[in-house]
Amino acid sequence: MQYDFNYQVADGVATLTFNRPDKLNAITFEIYAQLRDLLETLRYDDAVKVLVVTGEGRAFSSGGDVYEIIGELFKRDVKGLLDFTRMTGAVVRNMRLLDKPIIAALNGTTAGAGAVIALAADFRLMADSAKIHFLFTKVGLTGADMGAAYLLPRIVGAGRAMEILMFGDAVDAATAERIGLANRVVPRDALMPTAYDWAKRLARGPSLALSMTKHMVNNEANMDLIAAIEQEAQAQALMLQSQDHREFFQAFKEKREPEFKGR
């Protein structure tokens, strides 16, 4: 399938690169729909173990294209607007439902919808010159968009999230790392090597165990402790029967590295 972004797969790692650098990788209607559908398809693609998302040029993504989206939305009625906002939300929904690790490699400007896509990833690596900008309120919209008001407090805490979403100010890389919004900050030229190092390490790992871990983190977000402990007990009982766990034990006895198969 042809995409309005670069998409490649090698050695179990898929790389999605926003590639409208002259527009700071602004997102169009077509890109939103393609992202939504690709993320759904990846749930069933055994060739992909890990997804890396990044941008070409000076930006990860500046968010929705002002002329191609915002100008066009003024022509729509409420139903048309809701169709659009549900489509953008489906991108984040499908990122969280994808039972494979997602690494966002933030190479530069990360704003609006681009910031929420980064937020929905499992890991955020940032170039030291990059910034994250949840600027929705600065354009007269709610900071609660595409799941931002759900995800951000769970990462940085309610107080920090309120500050970031209400003021709409840019968060630099150093601050993002300090408050837990970024997992790691590296020099720009080390960003993609670091992202691929992480991705390859995850791709070689026990994919079934990684999948279960992501499911459990998602599922337990709204559980009380007692329910979470029981859920984890049941999940771990299943994992104790996995071939990967048996392979670990066999490799341990034979004093070698395990070869996980995701089963």
Can you tell me about this structure?
- The chain is α/β, with parallel strands linked by helices.
- The protein has two domains: 6-203, Alpha-Beta Complex (2-enoyl-CoA Hydratase, Chain A, domain 1), CATH 3.90.226.10; 206-254, Lyase 2-enoyl-coa Hydratase, Chain  A, domain 2 (Orthogonal Bundle), CATH 1.10.12.
- It has helices spanning 29-41, 66-73, 78-97, 113-120, 148-156, 158-167, 173-178, 191-204, 207-219, 225-239, 243-254; strands at residues 6-10, 13-18, 50-55, 59-61, 102-106, 109-111, 123-127, 131-133, 170-172, 184-186.
- The strands form two sheets. It has a six-stranded mixed sheet, sandwiched between helices. The chain has a four-stranded mixed sheet with strand order 4-6-8-9.
- A hairpin with a 2-residue loop joins strand 1 (6-10) and strand 2.
- Helix 9 (207-219) runs antiparallel to helix 10.
- The longest helix has 20 residues, at 78-97.
- The two termini are 29 Å apart.
- 36% of the residues are buried.
What labels would you give this structure?
263 residues, alpha/beta, Lyase 2-enoyl-coa Hydratase, Chain  A, domain 2, six-stranded mixed sheet, four-stranded mixed sheet, 49% helix
Count of separate DSSP helical elements: 11
State the CATH class of the largest domain.
Answer: Alpha Beta
How much of the sequence lies in strands comes to 15-25%
CATH homologous superfamily heading of the largest domain: 2-enoyl-CoA Hydratase, Chain A, domain 1
Order of SSEs, N→C? EEHEEHHEEHEEHHEHEHHHH
Q: What is the mean pLDDT?
A: 95
Q: What's the helical proportion of residues? A: 40-55%
Query: Unreliable stretches, pLDDT < 50, 5 or more residues?
Result: none
What's the main sheet like? 6 strands, mixed
Tell me the Rg in angstroms. 19 Å
CATH architecture of the largest domain: Alpha-Beta Complex
Class of secondary structure makeup = alpha/beta
Would you report the number of β strands? 10
What is the strand arrangement across the widest sheet? 1-2-3-5-7-10
CATH topology descriptor of the largest domain: 2-enoyl-CoA Hydratase, Chain A, domain 1
Q: Distance between termini?
A: 29 Å
Query: What is the global morphology?
Result: globular
